[in-house]
Design brief:
elongated, alpha+beta, 14% strand, five-stranded antiparallel beta sheet, 5 strands
């Protein structure tokens, strides 16, 4: 988990002890690390374990934010893009809100939130404001039948 500790040191104010201070994780290291976790929620759980093992108190919401940052490093072109948002030139991506386990779409540029892929065709923004969220797993997307909406390039 040395790569994870190095990434946490880059992304957070807390500095964890590392075995090799010269290690500078590259894209392949980051991708390999992230591929060990099924969705960013599981990565957030591991991040919390790392901080606890070093007697560092951290709110789980901060672990989720760190996990999402690291996940985005591994997937700079996040693979769950659903549609182009012509109004701002961003892409709508699939997210899962932690508090409710609700899935929704959010534009990666302007943060417009939409309740479902069907609502995109209606140009209907969500009346609900989704909060702390993670990237869902592929299994979850298959279960809700949203995997068919993912843009395949």
């Amino acid at each position: 988990m040395e790569v994870l500790k190095h990434l946490l040191n880059k992304c957070s104010e807390v500095q964890l002890p590392v075995l090799n201070a010269q290690l500078n994780p590259n894209y392949n290291d980051i991708f390999k690390l992230v591929s060990l976790f099924d969705g960013s929620y599981n990565l957030a759980v591991k991040i919390e374990e790392v901080f606890v093992s070093h007697d560092c108190g951290i709110e789980f919401s901060n672990c989720v934010s760190l996990a999402n940052q690291i996940w985005a490093m591994a997937y700079p072109n996040y693979p769950y893009k659903v549609a182009w948002h012509g109004s701002c030139q961003g892409y709508f991506e699939i997210w899962k809100e932690l508090a409710t386990n609700r899935f929704y779409l959010e534009c990666d540029e302007c943060s417009t939130q939409v309740d479902s892929p069907e609502d995109l065709n209606k140009h209907k923004a969500s009346e609900y404001f989704y909060e702390l969220s993670v990237y869902p797993t592929l299994e979850e997307l298959e279960d809700i039948d949203w995997i068919k909406y993912i843009i395949k390039k």
